[in-house]
Structures are given as structure tokens and as C-alpha cells.
Write a structure and sequence with these properties.
globular, about 25% helix, DUF1289
Amino acid sequence: MTHDPRSSRTASGATDAPGVPSPCIRDCRLTDDQRLCLGCGRTLEEIVRWPVLGEDERRAVLARLGERPA
């Protein structure tokens, strides 16, 4: 992931809160039921909302990833 030094946006256009990087590994594929991304493990809602989440909310998403079956 490359950063534009003039902003907090990444090359993909997403923003990262300081200290809470996105779990995206750029391997975006959905489970058959389209519930989770096979790359990062997030739900579609979590992926869509990531740019507007605060640090605490992002940490909560990351914590939930560890609780999900692999």
C-alpha cells in the first residue's frame, strides 16, 4: 500500500486512521454466501464502513476477525 504524503489516503483511495491499518491484503473474494471476504475476513458492511470508522471501531473490527472461523 502506498501513501500520498499530502493526505491520509492510500493509493486505493481508502483512508487509514493513524495506528490502525486496514486488514485488506488486496485478495478480495467473497465466500459463496457473500458474507465474508476470503482475503481479509471482514463482512461487506465492515469493508464499506472502514474509511469512516474511528480508531476504536476499527480495533473492534480487527478483534472480531480473530473470533471468526478461518
